[in-house]
Write a structure and sequence with these properties.
Layout lengths: L1 E4 L6 H9 L4 H11 L3 H5 L4 E7 L2 E9 L12 E7 L8 H15 L4 E6 L11 E7 L5 E8 L2
Parallel strand pairs: 4-5
Antiparallel strand pairs: 1-2, 2-3, 3-4, 5-7, 6-7
Helix pairs in contact: 1-2
Length: about 150
């Protein structure tokens, strides 16, 4: 398995189509935003998409972005769209991407990162701590987690 960055890949069309095969509504949204070049408009120009691949198969993906679904510019950066395809679940694959993203942030001297999710017990095993409930851009409450990287 290999971790690659979508925007550095020579096969962006292939990987975009693989993202679109996800059975999660957010995977479909990410696919749509990639088709219309909205991702960086919404999440920030420095947004990166990390892909865990197994040959030509997409195992997991996650983004590192300036902004996510919470309208709070003072909180940054965010990990979002974290997803593992069903046949690859149970092997800590999303953890591999989260670790790579956190290592990238540490090397850039970033001290913390946020995740917005409705999951309880998922991101805690990767060192995230529940911080507070905030409303997303649609006005719906969501759980915000933080991870200190120092």
């Amino acid at each position: 398995m290999q971790i690659i960055e979508y925007y550095k890949s020579k096969n962006q069309e292939h990987w975009k189509n693989e993202i679109g095969k996800g059975d999660w509504s957010a995977a479909k949204l990410l696919y749509s935003w990639l088709n219309t070049d909205k991702l960086k408009q919404i999440c920030g120009k420095s947004t990166k998409i990390f892909l865990l691949t197994d040959g030509d198969n997409l195992v997991s993906f996650a983004i590192l972005a300036e902004q996510d679904e919470i309208d709070a510019p003072e909180l940054s950066p965010w990990i979002g769209f974290a997803y593992t395809f069903p046949k690859y679940r149970g092997n800590n694959n999303i953890g591999k991407l989260i670790n790579r993203i956190c290592d990238t942030l540490k090397s850039n001297k970033i001290e913390k990162v946020y995740i917005s999710t409705d999951h309880i017990g998922l991101y805690e095993k990767y060192g995230f701590v529940f911080w507070k409930i905030m409303n997303n851009r649609e006005g719906k409450p969501t759980r915000v987690y933080i991870k200190n990287l120092n």
